[in-house]
Each structure stands twice: as C-alpha cells, then as structure tokens.
C-alpha cells in the first residue's frame, strides 16, 4: 500500500523558511512523479512544485519560483520542499502526492500541474505565515 507521510509545517513570520518532507513507501521515484500541492480555505487545490526524476522534469508555480526548491532523496525515499522568503499568501495546507509515470513520455509539464493526475495523496501539513 502506497503511503505518503508529510511533515514540516508550522508557523513562521513573513520572510521565514520551512522545509517540508514527504516520506514515501511502496513507490520508487524512477516510476513515480512527486508533487507538492496546497489548498487554502475556500480555494481549489493548486500545484506548488513537482518533480519527475525519470525524465528530469521539475515544475514550479510562478508564485513560488525563486523562493521554493523541490528535491528528492532516493536513498531515503523522501521528497523535500524548501521554502524561503515565505509570504502570508503561502499560508495553506500543503499536500504531498505521487503519480505513476512508468514509461509514459510526456511532451510538457501539464500533467504535473493537474492534481487529478496524481493517484496517491498524503495527509496535509499546515503552513501558516504571519504578517
């Protein structure tokens, strides 16, 4: 059974940093793409950053480019989201997700931006940025 365990959320002030971690079980990063999504109250779930090791694709939402960095550690089966210069608008519940890529060849990153493409989801971790 695929399990994704997200952690690292918390309360920080504007300009602060946090690192989210997602430990994955029963999947390997050479077959699955991993993503971080967030959902604020009353809003739709949106892609923040995604990584697909097998084809080297990395996606960042424009709102986090230059501030967030996604990375993967295959030895630990863990995906990280390093968040710098946090802003109040980053306040949200952050979710880790995994989508099966297998040998499929994608022409662009659109699948990484679509939460419906990801089959497995972890529990959320709350990030609160105070102004």
Give me the number of helical elements: 0
Assembly state (oligomeric): single chain
SSE string, helices as H and strands as E: EEEEEEEEEEE
What is the CA-based Rg, rounded?
A: 14 Å
Task: Please report the total strand number as a whole number.
Answer: 11
Coarse shape:
globular
* SS class: mainly beta
- Which stretches of 5+ consecutive residues score pLDDT under 50? none
What does this 3D model show about the protein?
The protein has strands at 3-7, 10-13, 18-25, 32-39, 46-52, 57-60, 68-73, 78-83, 92-100, 120-121, 125-130. It has 131 residues and is an all-beta fold. Strands 2, 4, 5, 6, 9, 10 and 11 form a seven-stranded mixed sheet that branches. A hairpin with a 4-residue loop joins strand 7 (68-73) and strand 8 (78-83). It is globular, with a radius of gyration of 14 Å. It starts with a strand and ends with a strand.
Quick tags:
50% strand, globular, mainly beta, four-stranded antiparallel beta sheet, 131 residues, 0% helix
């Amino acid at each position: 059974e695929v399990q994704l365990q997200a952690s690292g959320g918390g309360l920080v002030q504007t300009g602060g940093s946090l690192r989210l971690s997602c430990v994955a079980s029963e999947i390997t990063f050479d077959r699955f793409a991993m993503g971080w999504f967030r959902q604020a109250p009353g809003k739709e779930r949106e892609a923040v950053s995604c990584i697909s090791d097998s084809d080297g694709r990395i996606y960042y939402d424009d709102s986090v480019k230059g501030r967030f960095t996604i990375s993967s550690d295959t030895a630990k089966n863990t995906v990280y989201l390093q968040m710098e210069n946090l802003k109040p608008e980053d306040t949200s519940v952050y979710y880790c997700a995994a989508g099966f890529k297998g040998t499929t060849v994608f022409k662009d990153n659109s699948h990484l931006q679509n939460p419906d493409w990801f089959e497995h989801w972890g529990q959320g971790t709350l990030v609160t940025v105070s102004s």
